[in-house]
Amino acid sequence: MLLVCTGRETRTIAGLVNSEKEYRARLRLGIETDTLDISGAICARKEWRPRDEAEVMQIAGRFVGEIEQVPPIFSALHVGGQRSYKLARSGQQTNPEARRVTVFNFTISRVTARGLDFTVVCSKGTYVRALARDLAYALGTVGFLSHLTRTRIGSYTLQEALEVTALAQMLKTKSLE
Q1: What is the CATH number of the domain that holds 129?
Q2: If both were cysteines, with which of 24, 49, 54, 136 could 143 make a disulfide (CB 3.0 to 4.6 Å apart)?
């Protein structure tokens, strides 16, 4: 989900950027990738033994509130004046500094033999890939995001969103008026 502002609505962008975000995600456990998502190369494997959903919820609860988070090396953050992902792609070691983010809600919806599904509501600047990595470590294994959907930005929800083609048609129609 991406918000697009036009005309007078462009004045609201700063407020929207700072709004809380909600995501639905799937964490594949037992395998880690260098990007912490499905596009990366496998860099670690560690056995995952499924746990009781209540136990996983308790562990996820440790990440609710204001937390220190180390961003993924494949991120757009600047490290030494360059984008971290560019440095990482060129094989250079990057060490993004930990930053404070807020996780308002972290709910586990399903635990399976391969991983788990969760919903998280968080502040601007939170990397869900890093949150998933840290949860995997807390569960005694490694993991990566195999699916991620932003479902809300502030009060705007995925249910009221337009597909790109519908948005393009709407903008085309308005420009003809």
Answers
A1: 3.30.2350.10
A2: 136
Q: Phi/psi of residue 137, each to 5°?
A: -60, -45
- What's the domain count of the chain? 1
State how far the Cα of 143 lies from the Cα of 158, in Å rounded to an integer.
26
* Confidence (pTM): 0.84
- Residue 14 in domain: no
Identify the top-confidence range among 8-22, 42-56, 135-149, 151-165: 135-149
* Cα angle for residues 40, 163, 145 (degrees, 5° grid): 20
User: Would you say residue 1 lies in a domain?
Assistant: no
Asked if residue 5 is part of any domain, the answer here is no
pLDDT given at position 177: 55
**Domain range for residue 30?**
19-176
What 3-state DSSP class applies to 123? coil
Cα–Cα nearest to 70, from 84, 91, 59, 57? 84
Q: pLDDT tens-digit profile of 136-166? A: 999 999 999 999 999 998 888 888 887 888 8
**Predicted local distance difference test score (pLDDT) of residue 92:** 75
In a domain, 4, yes or no: no
Residue 121 near residue 131 (C-beta atoms within 8 A): no
